[in-house]
Amino acid sequence: MTMTTNEIREAFLTYFEEKGHRRVDSAPLVPGNDPTLLFTNAGMVPFKDCFLGTEKRAYNRATSSQKCVRAGGKHNDLENVGYTARHHTFFEMLGNFSFGDYFKQDAIKFAWEFLTVTLGLPADKLWVTVHETDQEAEDIWFNEIGIDQQKFSRLGDKDNFWSMGDTGPCGPCSEIFYDHGERVEGGPPGSPDEDGDRYIEIWNLVFMQFNRDQAGNTTPLPKPSVDTGMGLERITAVMQSVHNNYEIDLFVTLIQFIADKINCKDISNQSLRVIADHIRSCSFLIIDGVLPGNEGRGYVLRRIIRRAIRHGNKLGVETSFFQ
């Protein structure tokens, strides 16, 4: 079943609304409640205080498609953009969240049902990982979902323990990967050749259990919660049967427009991907009040603009074209 980017986003939000979640609008890219972050870099950022127990909302289940930027600070993908199939400075993160309501069991069930029933993905194309100490999550996957235990890995902190920054809510996670098939090089998570592109993470289910302070100490959160994130661009690539995010409907149109404007005949040129990505991030950052500058967020935006211009120059476009 082929779906457009917009159709996938709407299917996700509708599914979780039907599961009792409040649909919440995307928050701005400039975090309003966290001076430790340059930008909103994950779907859970607007809900940080809910996880900490210091903010009470009128709902304890939420779903959103959060606009995110990863171009500075701990999560910085800027230099990878254009050279990999999946890195972006700007992207949308589909997420469902529980603030002390449901926990691992429902989070896992919801994810599996959405992928295999709503989207119709074959179960044998999915690979699951859990934190090496998380026996509870493993039991749910094995005994309640009934996954193929040959498509499963237990991994350590580097891969399966998540935090949005050096401090704040954190916890073990369970990730779901999509197998793009033998035609693509690479092995499953935890294998020696896991860095290949065959198995691609599409959804991260984070079980928020702790709060990490500036000294690195972790303490249990008042109520265990759930934070999940699935990159809209990644799941769209799966649903549109392409292996590169820049080949989905959203980017194909933008890249073709840019190529036509600058008379570039090689539509696969990496610089076109860089410009397409950076146009998105610059546009949304400026809309949210960030302007080019010499420090902080303004400096990051300035770097993104300059990198886009540099790649325009590589395509033979004069700098005056951008003025």
Helix/strand layout:
Elements: H1 5-18, E1 22-23, H2 48-52, E2 61-69, E3 90-98, H3 104-118, E4 126-131, H4 135-145, E5 152-155, H5 157-160, E6 161-163, E7 168-179, E8 199-212, E9 218-231, H6 232-239, H7 249-262, H8 270-287, H9 296-314
Parallel strand pairs: 1-2, 4-5
Antiparallel strand pairs: 2-3, 3-9, 4-7, 6-7, 7-8, 8-9
Helix pairs in contact: 3-4, 7-8, 8-9
Percent of residues in helices comes to 25-40%
First CA to last CA: what distance? 43 Å
Order of helices and strands: HEHEEHEHEHEEEEHHHH
Largest sheet: 9 strands, mixed
Which segments are poorly predicted (pLDDT under 50) over 5 or more consecutive residues? none
Task: Provide the structure class.
Answer: alpha+beta
Arithmetic mean pLDDT: 92
Radius of gyration equals: 20 Å
- Total beta-strand segments: 9
Strand fraction equals 15-25%
Description of the molecule:
The chain is built from nine helices and nine strands. With 323 residues, it is an alpha+beta fold. Strands 1, 2, 3, 4, 5, 6, 7, 8 and 9 form a nine-stranded mixed sheet that branches.
Key phrases:
323 residues, nine-stranded mixed sheet, 9 helices, alpha+beta, globular
Task: Offer a quick outline of the entry.
33% of the residues lie in helices and 23% in strands.
